[in-house]
Specification:
Elements: H1 2-15, H2 43-74, H3 78-103, H4 107-122, H5 124-131, H6 143-169, H7 176-195
């Protein structure tokens, strides 16, 4: 309900924005390359997209099988495999999309893909909860799951703080947020591997 409400509010804000951006010497415009062709049919790209979605779905199934094998054969913790191996592999398409959008100058597409993707990923818990037959999935959450949840919240807090500071005070040292995010994630991975 919160996700759907957010989509509704976003659509309303597009029509009735709460504030208007102003040009400053530090403003960087989002000007993606114009690669559109006015008379090109949408059928071919739509079919290609559908085929790629099917391939990604199959790859997702294979990844889950590999993750299960890593847990069974090497005795790795399921949360560690999920948080590191599966999460990293399944994020690769999003990384490629983000880098491609950034290189083309479509900065809003890149940021929207990252933030929107993470928001949408949270909905997977809803689907997983309906598929879990032994009660509520949230009752099965363990200490390691909470550890990664807190790590994600810390990283989100750094991102939000960086966006707010840049909005209020103009450019802060470029890359500071990125450095902090890498340190938080790297530290969390190191502690998880050391702790088993």
């Amino acid at each position: 309900m919160v996700y759907l409400g957010g989509l509704h509010l976003t659509a309303r804000l597009r029509d009735e924005p709460m504030w208007q951006p102003v040009q400053t010497p530090e403003t960087r415009t989002d000007t993606p390359e114009d690669s559109s062709e006015p008379h090109r049919s949408a059928l071919k790209p739509a079919l290609g997209f559908a085929a790629l979605v099917a391939v990604m779905g199959l790859c997702g199934w294979v990844i889950s099988q590999v993750g299960g094998t890593l847990i069974a054969r090497f005795g790795m913790g399921s949360t560690l495999v999920g948080a590191l191996v599966t999460a990293v592999v399944t994020s690769m398409p999003e990384l490629v999309t983000t880098l491609a959008a950034t290189r083309r100058g479509a900065l809003q597409l890149a940021l929207g893909g990252i933030i929107g993707g993470n928001t949408f990923d949270t909905l997977f818990l809803v689907f997983a909860d309906t598929a879990y037959r032994e009660g509520s999935l949230y009752h099965a959450v363990g200490t390691q799951d909470l550890y990664w949840l807190v790590t994600g919240q810390m990283m989100t807090a750094v991102l939000l703080a960086g966006l707010i500071l840049r909005q209020r005070h103009g450019p802060v040292q470029i890359g500071l947020e990125s450095l902090l995010l890498i340190l938080i994630y790297g530290g969390a991975v190191a502690l998880a591997v050391i702790g088993g």
